[in-house]
Amino acid sequence: MLTFHNVCSVPSSFWLTGIPGLESLHVWLSIPFGSMYLVAVVGNVTILAVVKIERSLHQPMYFFLCMLAAIDLVLSTSTIPKLLGIFWFGAGDIGLDACLGQMFLVHCFATVESGIFLAMAFDRYVAICNPLRHSMVLTHTVVGRLGLVSLLRGVVYIGPLPLMIRLRLPLYKTHVISHSYCEHMAVVALTCGDSRVNNVYGLSIGFLVLILDSVAIAASYVMIFRAVMGLATPEARLKTLGTCASHICAILIFYVPIAVSSLIHRFGQCVPPPVRTLLANFYLLIPPILNPIVYAVRTKQIRERLLQIPRIEMKIR
Q: In terms of CB atoms within 10 Å, which of 15, 103, 136, 207 comes out highest?
């Protein structure tokens, strides 16, 4: 590591502290974090397998659900195995390029997930407000293109973040990151140069993704509710709204933790560092854990297929 004026340096690697302030509890913290990661992996892999096997689920909503499952696997796997390594073995060392790569994966796929939720809101809007055209509008090709657009948007939006750090801010005050993974603001805070461009760009992307996507989703549901209120009977209204319940739950599970974590990280200076770091990890773990549960409970076809698994195993025995 090259050092200049005994203050700033060019690091070849960083050191992740895990949960700062709770180092003595790292071994115990590994139990809930490891359990949650296992549940997330099993749940999302199960969703992917069930949708692949069950041909009746080869519909736009379930294709989008598979995209969410794949994204949740990337988000959790890009951070939690490293965190468990820190908890168990004190393996906090991470190379500079690996750190920037982890930063890109976390923020890119969080952006992609927001885009998939927006596409799912469009799917629900067409299915309820214009059901006769749903199969013509949301073809398999269109669904694939919407997923690809969400991915490309994430790459275009987030790609400049690690590049700007690599090219504009090569010097750092310290190589110790008081976090469990390479979060953008946690890394930028260590740099010696002028980070205003990075901060403004990060805030702008956060606004574009979190605010505009939320507004677009809310607007789609306003139109959906207007269409539902025009139905003849309360039973028909409840049945139609029931098709949106899983999506609404998944949206809240995703946006509420990420909004709370972002606000606390930027403005909650009085919040203890361990709480901020725990919240930053929970927003990467809560959606991967709860999304499969919500859709398994709320979706009849998925629920029935999962209930068939124990019966098949009993017959085999």
A: 103
- Rg, C-alpha atoms of the chain: 22
Greater pLDDT, 215 or 270:
215
Tens-place pLDDT, residues 16-28 = 999 998 989 999 9
Q: Residue 270's CB: how many other CB atoms inside 10 A?
A: 6
Residue 188 is encoded by which pair of tokens?
Answer: 């930028």
Q: Residue 261 corresponds to which tokens in the numbers above? A: 């974590």
Q: How far is CA 278 from the centre of its chain?
A: 15
Taking the mean position of all CA atoms in its chain, how far away is CA 159?
A: 17
- 142-164 pLDDT, tens digit each: 999 999 999 999 999 999 999 99
Please give the domain boundaries of the chain with CATH numbers for all domains.
13-314 (1.20.1070.10)
Angle among Cα 161, 86, 187 to the nearest 5 degrees reads: 20
